[in-house]
## 1
Amino acid sequence: MRHLLLRLFTLISLPVVAQDLSLRIQTEASLSLSIAQEADEAIERAQHWLEAQGTPTNSLPQRLLYRYALADAKRPFTLHRCDLTPLEAAMPAPTPPAALTNLTATLAEYRQNPKALFALQRDLPLASPPPPPDWREVLALELINSQRITPAGGHWGSFPNTLWALLTLRALLNESASIQLAE
């Protein structure tokens, strides 16, 4: 069971706390203070926008991602075992190896696809050759600058896009809530 949990959470690049196993999948890399502050503001706007839209009712994976996107990063997010399969199915496919070698071209191609950008931030740390040292800032700025701001908050064109963009920004900031499996 631990092998399955480790595989799942390595795929989604979220921090994990499972029973007596504690594993945080984050890097020590961080964004510059000014970009981190802008990202925090974009996250807050996106959370307000998502809350204004309401909880999705027709898709279990979207409902789980919605709850996770709004979760407090300082508290573990409780997940039931039966939610693992739908959550795993919702995760984006691996980024093609060719897309990991040219960040500028990949961002131009993935610009309108926050789910692909989530996969990119997940997969870039393992790329060979390694990505440029500022890849986190470049990706964060891409998302920050493409957020549409409205009186209800900020979004990236649709509910799913906003979920994935928000999750990507939180991952880039190393501010994803840890996940704890319910017993």
Note: The chain is about 50% helix and 10% strand.
## 2
Amino acid sequence: MDKMIKYLKTWGIFFGLMIIVSLVSTLLNYFTDVSLSFICTLNMIALLIIFFIIGFKQGKVSSSKGWLCGLKNGGILCLFLLLVSLIFFTKNIKLSTFLYYGILILGTVFGSIIGINKKKEA
């Protein structure tokens, strides 16, 4: 039950930050003359930072092997993003899609490794 609550907290943080990033990028696209490629790049950087933060938080509460914790969390979140993307937005998968999700998973792994190393000794 305790693990379930940790995963639900992770999903809550993820959805909350994703809604904020979506709102900001929508407002940026609607009210400014910023190019779409800049907004896409900004979204990718913001998503990478979100994955890093989630990995960092999970690494701080993990007992051992931060890379494995980051790999699990990043894989689950990327699988969710891939399913949403396939259902609502696109019907084909390219190699660049797997590269994109691989970068996000690496961000989570690095965040988790740093988080487990920054754990306070009690």
Note: The chain has four helices and no strands.
## 3
Amino acid sequence: MNNLYLIPANSKKSQLIFSIFTVSDLILFGIGLAITVILLITVTKSDGLFIMFLKVLPALTTGILVLPIPNYHNVLGFFKSMINYLSSNKQYYWKGWCVKDVYGRDYEGRFNK
């Protein structure tokens, strides 16, 4: 094949734990589980359903953050990209209709100098 080869699409998955998680994902999820276990140990019989939901919330939140989604590693990676995009300084340069055009036109069609 003339020394040509294809890299498999899932070659990055071999570097992940269970082909899904990074070490930081598991640490984050472990912290959420540990907080939940500590909160659940303090449960008394008089606690209501809402209080029980609040005690399970750290595990649910961290579980959702490390949930894999398409086109991103996980939800946390999506949030990082979204915050980076929204907080970055975006500056778009107008090139005009023609590359050789020295001056561009504004939105009303007038030439800018």
Note: DSSP finds three helices and no strands in the chain.
